[in-house]
Amino acid sequence: MQTIYLQTPIQKDAIEALHVGDSVYITGRIFTSRDMGHLRIQGLLEGGQALPEDLEGSAVFHAGPVVEKEGEGYKLRVIGPTTSIRMEPYAQMVGELGVRAIIGKGGMAAETLANAAKYKYVYLQAAPGCAVQLAAGVKAVERVHWLDLGVPEAMWVLDVKDFGPLVVAMDAHGKSLYDDVRANARAEKARIAAGDGAGE
Amino acid sequence: MSNCAVIDQALLARELDRLIRRAVVNISADTRQLLEEALERETKPTARGMLQSMLENTRMAREGNMPVCQSPGYPTVYVRFGDACLPGKLADMLGAGVVQATAEGLLRPSIVHPLTRKNSGDNSGEGVPNYEWSYEPALDYLEIIASLKGCGAELGNAMRIMTVPQLGKQNRGLKNFVLDTVIEAGGKPCPPVGIGIGIGGQMDVAAKLSRKAISTRLWTDNHPDPLYRQLEEELLQEINALGLGAAGVGGETYALAVKIGAAATHTAIAPVAINFHCWVTRRGGVRIWPDGRVEDLF
C-alpha cells in the first residue's frame, strides 16, 4: 500500500501503477456527474454531438455539491460522494471517453471492473458522508454545465488540490476490494448459518 | 374536547427553526459515541482511515456550521401529540423551514418529481416532508423528531413477506435474510450503518416500523422486550462478524446498531422490512409542554 499524488490530466501509466489498497490524492480538475449527467452524456454521444468538456485523462466524481451563488459564479460549501452503483450501466462509455479515475462510494460491479482493465481506469472510494473534509480539497468552482438538471445532477467543474484521501478500491488489473470483502462475508455467513444447524 | 389546546405557535416556530439547524450540522451524540468505539476496536488500516475521516468531518461540520453531508437526505417527521398540545400549523412551518434552510445553503435542493425527475429547487414537493402523526389523547406534551435520512442507504433496503417455514428454527431464516441483504448492500449505504428491522403487520406496516425504529430510537438503547433485545444483539454480532467494515472496505464494524420495530401480524404471513441508515444521523428531537417548557431529545 502506497500513497500517490495524481495530477490531471492523468496518464495511463500512472493508473497502471495503482493497486487496490493504495491511497490517492488528486490535484488539478475534477468533474462531477451522476445519474442525469451520465444519461445526458450518453444522449449527446448517441446524437453525435460534442460534450462541453474533454474528459480524456479526467477524474469524474459521483457527487452533487452544496453551493452558494457568489457574484456571477458559485462558491462550494460541501461535497461528498454519492452511491456509485447507479452509474454501472455507463462503465464502457466512461472508458471510451478516456476517464482515468472514478471517485465515489460503495463500489461498482463486474462491468466496471472489466472496462477499468480494458480502458485503464480506477475506481476510488472516498470516505462516505465526509462532505466538509472533502470540500477542503476544492479550491474553486471553475464552471457548471446543465444546471437545468438541478444542482445535484449538473456537471460541476472543480479546481482541486490534494483532493482526498481516496482509496483505490477497484484497479486496472482486475482486482476489486469489494469482491474480496464480499466473498469473505459470504463464507462467514455460511459458517454462521450452518452453526445454528438450520437453513432457511 | 373542551380541554383541547393548540401549542403556542410562536414558540413552536422558534423550536422548529432551531431543530432543523441543529440536525443539519450535527450527527446525534449516540452515533458519535458508537463511531469512536468502532475506531478504538478497528484493526484494519483502511477502515481506520474511513472512521477517522468520519469523526474529523463531524467535528469540522459542527465547528464550521456546515452541513455534515452534501445530501440532505429525505425528511420524515415523527410527531406525537395529545389533546392539551395540538400541533396547529406545524407541518406548514416545518416545510417552510426546510425551504428556508435550502435557501441559506444548509441543504442541497434534492427533491424531484418521481418520474420526470424535475428538481423543485427548494426541497419542497408533493408529500415532502413526510409526516407520521401519532395521536395519544392523554399526552401532555408535543414531541417532534425530524429525521433527514440519506438515500444511498435506501438502495440497500429489502422487504419480504416471509412465511412461517421461511422464518426457520430460532428465526434462522429471518437472520439469513438480514445477512444476505447486508452482504448485497455492502458499501452502498455508507457504513457503519444502523439497521432498522420492521417485523409484522402487512407490507406497509413493516416498512414504516423499520424506518421509525432506526430513526427515533437512540442507537445505544435496549429494546424493552427481551425477545427483540436478544434478536437485536444476535443480529448485530452476526452482521459485524461478516467483516464488511466501515465504507464496505473490510473491517470490524459494519453496523453500529440494529433496532427492531414490531407489530402483530396475520397468522398467514411474517413480513420483514430491512432499512439501512447511514452513519450520518441527522435528527432533531424536541418535546414542548403547554407551559412553555422545552426538552431536547437528540
Overview features:
heterodimer, A: 200 residues, fumarase, 5-stranded mixed beta barrel, 6 helices, B: 298 residues, 60s Ribosomal Protein L30, Chain: A, 2 domains, globular
Describe, in plain words, how this protein is organized in 3D.
Chain A is α/β, with parallel strands linked by helices and 200 residues long. Chain A has one domain (3-195): fumarase. Chain A contains 6 helices and 9 strands, in the order βαβαβββαβαβαββα. Chain B is α+β, with helices and mostly antiparallel strands and 298 residues long. Chain B is built from 8 helices and 9 strands. In chain B, the strands form 2 sheets. Chain B has a 5-stranded mixed β-sheet, with helices on both faces. In chain B, strands 4-7-5-6 form a 4-stranded mixed β-sheet. The longest helix of chain B is centred in the first third of the chain and has 20 residues, at 45-64. Chain B is globular. Chain B starts with 8 loop residues before the first helix and ends with a strand. Chains A and B meet through strand 4, helix 5, strand 9 and helix 6 of A and helix 3 and helix 6 of B.
Q: Secondary structure elements and their pairing?
A:
The complex is a heterodimer of chains A (200) and B (298).
Chain A (H helix, E strand, L loop, with lengths): L2 E5 L4 H5 L6 E10 L2 H12 L12 E3 L4 E5 L2 E6 L12 H6 L4 E4 L5 H10 L2 E5 L4 H5 L2 E8 L9 E16 L6 H19 L5
Parallel strand pairs in A: 1-2, 2-3, 3-6, 6-7
Antiparallel strand pairs in A: 2-9, 4-5, 7-9, 8-9
Chain B lengths: L8 H17 L3 H13 L3 H20 L9 E8 L8 H14 L26 E6 L6 E8 L8 E5 L1 H4 L4 H14 L7 E9 L1 H14 L9 H16 L13 E11 L4 E8 L4 E7 L5 E3 L2
Parallel strand pairs in B: 1-2, 5-6
Antiparallel strand pairs in B: 1-3, 3-8, 4-7, 5-7, 8-9
